[in-house]
Write a structure and sequence with these properties.
By secondary structure, the chain is of the alpha+beta class. It has helices at about 1-25, 75-80, 95-100, 125-140, 145-160, 165-180, 190-195, 200-210, 225-235, 290-300, 305-315, 345-360, 365-380, 385-400, 405, 410-415, 420-430, 440-450; strands spanning about 35-40, 45-50, 55-60, 105-110, 115-125, 215-220, 260-265, 270-280, 320-325, 330-340, 435-440, 455-460.
Length: about 475
């Protein structure tokens, strides 16, 4: 069954890609229509009826992520989400897995900074079984002690193992150092110390406090009748008791002034992984489309200025990129790469030179045209499947974005001029105020990297946690 569903998805992808290629060429990319209903208990329901492919996708957003974790219990939101499929009032973990496998379904649950997400995809013919599994996980998780202990143990081991591969934890250190005392500094999945503090009662309390209908957006896209689906959801979720939910207020983080550097010492490392940048933008920033166009040229694709300089022309790395991690409040802007120990300063210097050149020269009309065509070609495939569409409309609803976020995208891309690009570079690509985070062999690179900042901090990767150190 699972192989059949996988083959069907491949066929669907090919068909939709052909259709979107025509749409993009004709500049007619549109979000399919969908209906919004708010149930009496406060659940927000989004229904996108889209026939032709016998698949139904559900994507739920619970408006509580890592920022809602209690202090010293970072990772609680992620652990709670991960346990939803590990036993309910009606099914133990094995039975849930068996029932999911029987219908060839795909279930996922996790937590990011701003929200937790739960999704399930299955064939239309298995609608009743799929809804039963999804609602069982969402409404009746048991949080069995043995499963809680097992997951926490696995997560702690995973954090420790990740530190053997610097690339896997680079952003944990960078975000902690960049955001400081702000809630966005927290590692979404927790660390060795915080995970060890989490108890079963804390998981149950987090669920009761945050998994409420008024705190949940449920988006469904695919092959179904809107009227029938609405009736099924009202029957399944309509009796979910309404409960008050109190979420922490998340203020906009303040950009760092000046330059500071964190060196994470990994004595066995033959390479240096480096990230630098500052606070970026929120999801709804007015400049978001222009930034996307500009960053495509700077560091957002393989042929970007950054990758060309650090990989293609100099051979200092196998990859270099730049990205904006947009969130409800401004997230991080980051330039990321890695190189051999002996070429650490050469690579960082070159990345800074590319940034300086970008500020000085801006974008040419040719670069703009190339970036615009690239985005228009890359974006439609991100809206091919029912699961992609369900996640898209759920995310737009959470962030307060309307359908024009998609429907007007091409027009907004076309409106970016060299003058606008220059303004965006000056405003959103910091050059003077920078936060550096390096993971490497301190005895080899420590003295040479001090030139990048006036404030220096050091941390051993073998020490538990990321940044700040415990008690700081």
């Amino acid at each position: 069954m699972r192989r059949k569903l996988k083959a069907l998805r491949f066929l669907i992808s090919a068909i939709l890609l052909a259709g979107f290629a025509f749409s993009a060429a004709a500049q007619t990319l549109k979000l399919p229509p969908h209906e919004k209903i708010v149930l009496k208990n406060g659940l927000t329901l989004l229904l996108m009826e889209k026939h032709g492919v016998p698949i139904v996708s559900l994507a739920a957003i619970v408006k509580a992520g890592a920022v809602a974790d209690p202090a010293q219990e970072e990772g609680l939101a992620a652990v709670t989400a991960g346990l939803l499929r590990k036993g309910t009032a009606r099914r133990n973990a094995q039975k849930f897995a068996e029932d999911l496998d029987f219908i060839g379904g795909s279930f996922a649950a996790d937590a990011g900074a701003d929200f937790s997400s739960v999704s399930l995809e299955f064939l239309t013919k298995d609608l009743d079984q799929g809804l039963d599994l999804f609602s069982d996980a969402m409404l009746h998780p048991a949080f069995v002690q043995a499963e809680v202990d097992k997951m926490l143990s696995q997560d702690i081991d995973a954090v420790k193992a990740a530190k053997d591969e610097a690339q896997s934890v680079a952003l944990n250190y960078y975000y902690g150092y960049l955001f400081g005392k702000h809630l966005y500094a927290r590692p979404d999945g927790g660390d060795e110390l915080s995970l060890a503090r989490i108890k079963r009662d804390a998981v149950a309390k987090f669920y009761e406090s945050n998994y409420t209908p008024g705190n949940t957006i449920l988006a469904i896209a695919g092959d179904f009748s809107t009227a029938q689906m609405r009736a099924k959801i009202e029957q399944t979720f309509g009796n979910w008791p309404a409960r008050a939910s109190s979420l922490p207020a998340v203020a906009a983080p303040v950009p760092v002034k000046g330059k500071k550097l964190l060196l994470v010492d990994k004595p066995d490392s033959t390479q240096t992984f480096f990230v630098f940048g500052n606070i970026g933008i929120a999801v709804n920033d007015p400049d978001r489309v222009a930034i996307r166009v500009v960053n495509t040229v700077f560091g957002g694709r393989f042929t970007s200025e950054l990758n060309e300089a650090l990989r293609v022309e100099s051979g200092l790395t196998y990859g270099a990129d730049a990205f904006f991690d947009s969130r409800k409040q401004p997230g991080a802007f980051a330039i990321f790469s890695y190189t051999k120990n002996e070429s650490t300063t050469q690579a960082i210097d070159l990345a800074l030179q590319v940034l300086a050149k970008f500020h000085k020269q801006g974008l040419t009309a040719e670069q703009l045209a190339s970036a615009k065509a690239y985005i228009k070609g890359q974006f439609p495939p991100s809206m091919e499947t029912s699961s992609q569409l369900a996640r898209r409309i759920a995310s737009n609803e959470f962030h307060g974005l309307g359908d024009d976020e998609i429907n007007q995208l091409e027009a907004r891309i076309d409106a970016v001029t060299p003058a606008i690009a220059k303004q965006v570079i000056e405003k959103h690509f910091p050059e003077e105020n920078l936060v550096f985070m390096l993971i490497g062999k301190a005895s080899d690179i420590g003295p040479s990297v001090q030139k990048y900042a006036t404030q220096h901090d050091i941390r051993k990767i073998s020490e538990p946690g990321f940044w700040p150190p415990p008690g700081k």
